[in-house]
Amino acid sequence: MTIAIVLVVLAAVVLLVRAAVQRWQATRQRQLDDAAADARRWIERLGGQVLTLTGTDTASQQALADAAERYNAAASQVEQAESAEQARLAKETALEGLYYIRAARVAMDMDPGPALPDEAERERAGKVTEHRAVDVDGQTYAASPEPGQDTPHYYPGGEVAGRPVPQGWYSEPWWKPALIGGAWGLGAAVLFGAMFSGMPGVTDANTWQDGYEAGQHDVGFDDDDAIF
To answer: Residue 90 gets which letter from DSSP?
Structure first.
């Protein structure tokens, strides 16, 4: 009799655990489906713009190329997503692409279109508020709040490898090595200080430098290893 009771209790526990697991899996799948559907909505919006717009100058062509790159990346991310968080990353990629679309439209003197969701990260990074050109290690770098022949590369603002890059137009995509490699080179702090020191609307150069040094330590770089 005692053995029978134990077996019944064990069977009940197994059933309860199985039911709990199934509920958790169903909730997780529902969250993934909802996040993926939300991401696809923004990806489709981005895709429509990528397919219908044609750049008329260097700045708009570059911005549209960057938007197309984000579209392809976001589409791949959402298809491979196995969690709601991964689907949300696809949405963020699509939103970044839409910022490039707005930049391309501005460069072509078109209405930029509907406003996009504000992101605190972009707000913290600040905006380029004046045209400025600096020489660093024999190379000239320029930044401007507006597109131009010498500033055809747009960045929507945000963190790259833990450091803020202000929204604006640039002569060179100097943030890309950190975007790809996940760490800033030694020359990046010098460039940031020279480019943005004293510029209203941009994070203080010393703050950027402090965070840069901390970031290099976190990823195991020292001054001898770091390159720009």
So the answer is: H
pLDDT-derived band at 180 (thresholds 50, 70, 90) equals confident
Q: Which two tokens mark 84? A: 């709601």
Half-sphere exposure at residue 4, Cβ-oriented, CA atoms within 13 angstroms:
1
Distance from C-alpha of 228 to C-alpha of 141, rounded to nearest angstrom: 14
Report helix, strand or coil for 173: coil
- 3-state SS track over 103-152: HHHHHCCCCCCCCCCCCHHHHHHEECCCCEEEEECCEEEEEECCCECCEC
Amino acid at position 144, single letter = S
Beta carbons within 8 Å of 143's beta carbon, 6+ residues apart: 128, 131, 132, 133, 151, 166, 168, 169, 170, 171, 195, 196
| Whole-angstrom distance, CA of residue 26 vs CA of residue 24 | 5
CA distance 159 to 164: 4
Q: What is the pLDDT of residue 210?
A: 58
**Secondary structure letter of residue 202 according to DSSP:** B
- On the question of pLDDT at 206 being above 70, the answer is no
**Which has the closest alpha carbon to 123: 66, 70, 176, 202?**
202
Q: How many of the other CB atoms lie within 10 Å of CB of 222? A: 9
Q: How many CB atoms lie within 10 A of CB 226?
A: 17
Per DSSP, the three-state class of 159 is strand
28-37, 38-47, 77-86, 209-218: range with lowest mean pLDDT = 209-218
- How far are the Cα atoms of 8, 19, 131, 142 from residue 14, in angstroms, in the given order? 10, 9, 68, 66
